[in-house]
Amino acid sequence: MPEEKATIVTYPDEFSKEEIKELAQRAGYTVVGMITQKRVVKSEYGVGVGKAEELRDMVSKNGSKTLIVDEEVTSSQANKLATVTRCEIVDRDRLILNIFARRATTTEAKLQVQLAELKYEMPRARDAVRYSVNGERAGFMGMGETMVDIKFRALKKRMNFIRERLEKAQANRNLHRTERRKLGLPFVSLAGYTSSGKTTLFNKLAGEAREESPDLFTTLTTTMRAVSFGDARRRVMLSDTVGFISRIPTYMVESFKSTLEELTYADLALLMVDASEERESMSIKLRSCVETLGQLGVDPKKVVLVLNKIDRLEGAALRNLEEDDLFAGLNIVKISAVRGDGLRQLKNLIVATTYPQVSRVKTGADAALLRPSR
User: Fold this and answer.
1) What does the alpha-carbon distance between residue 31 and residue 7 come to, in Å, rounded to a whole number?
2) What is d(CA 201, CA 73) in angstroms, rounded to the nearest whole number?
3) What's the CA gap between 230 and 129, in Å, rounded?
4) Does the pLDDT at position 345 exceed 90?
5) Given Cys at both, which of 20, 183, 231, 350 links 70, Cβ 3.0 to 4.6 Å?
6) How far apart are CA 365 and CA 53, in angstroms?
């Protein structure tokens, strides 16, 4: 089945253009056109009137059936822009949800995606109430309920049902966490931007063979394994979590909270960043990750920054990482999860941080801090 052609509306900076293009491709679209605008989603069309007309002409020529807007748009804006361009309108939130839906494999992940989708639909249902048939009255002579009201109530009922199922899953997770605590094992969680290499590192440390992929959101559920570093006295419970992404809405973070909450209970969180990317990209992703960890209530004193993929850097670029003020004041560990560089130092850091009474390896681990940018 051929991929559907799409045209993108996004911001003019390179990071925004590259990220939304990759998101579109991972969602199954072939990007055949792109228009940039400094302020997206400001007018009745979500773009300027002139841009709307430009888009109408562009999609007519390139054959796009979908218009992807790199922001959240209201149902009113989407309807008006669709009328002008004769395209389906997919905003940033919907695009991310579509990718989540494609990647979800477990029952819990599917429920989390469904909850996020319902939260996405709720304000659009309210819009439908507001913009429904002009002067429509509910039922015969104004009595009863409109179909829109019934749909709105159905959405709320479905949302409550999913929340109840997720609460049960969360209760089971809490029970398992309590049982694991009885074993006396410290918790270590992997966190980071999507595609930063978390699952690759998890496989290296845990001796696993979980799916590794450059695709976005390869991991949507938490996997946990007991990992030994040398002997039985140096074992930790290691978990892999869903990757972060910039400008992710709060309601999506809340929907995946039952998965992400492992980070809040961690004795040590390893925040991974792809060190082979451009500095601007690293800066944006690091800031986004720190903000998301803050939303989750993760103690910054328990976070260590792991710069991954150093095998892709030349000598000078690798040395410059130490001097980059982007990481000033932070304790960093440089690794290549694929090639194995720096893994011994990382293991020593994990042991020194989680078992200070057993090992006093001089790695600077006791001083490891990640302070949120101000």
Assistant:
1) 6
2) 37
3) 62
4) yes
5) 20
6) 57
Which tens digit of pLDDT belongs to each residue from 17-40? Answer: 999 999 999 888 999 999 998 887
Tokens 């590794």 appear where? 212
DSSP assignment of 188-217: EEEEEBTTSSHHHHHHHHHT------SSTT
pLDDT at 362 over 50: no
User: What is the chain's mean pLDDT, rounded?
Assistant: 81
Q: In whole angstroms, what is the distance from residue 262 CA to residue 191 CA?
A: 10
Residue 295: how many other CB atoms lie within 10 Å: 15
Find how far residue 296's CA is from the centre of its chain. Answer: 13
Rounded to an integer, what is the distance from CA 355 to the centroid of its chain? 31
Contact between 300 and 264 (Cβ < 8 Å): no
Q: By percentage, how much of the chain surpasses pLDDT 90?
A: 34
Q: What are phi and psi for residue 13, nearest 5 degrees?
A: -75, 150
What Cα–Cα distance (Å) separates residue 367 from each residue in 160, 331, 332, 360? 44, 7, 11, 12
286 touches 300 (CB < 8 A): no
Angle of helix 92-103 relative to helix 14-26, nearest 10 degrees, comes to 40
* 83 within 8 A of 61, measured Cβ to Cβ: no
For residue 256, with 0-12 CB atoms within 10 Å meaning exposed, 13-18 middle and 19 or more buried, which class applies? Answer: buried
* pTM, two decimal places: 0.78
Report the chain's C-alpha Rg in angstroms: 23
Q: For strand 231-240 and strand 223-229, is the pairing parallel, antiparallel, or unpaired?
A: antiparallel
**Token pair for 8:** 């993108």
d(CA 28, CA 44): 28
Q: Residues 189, 230: contact at Cβ < 8 Å?
A: no
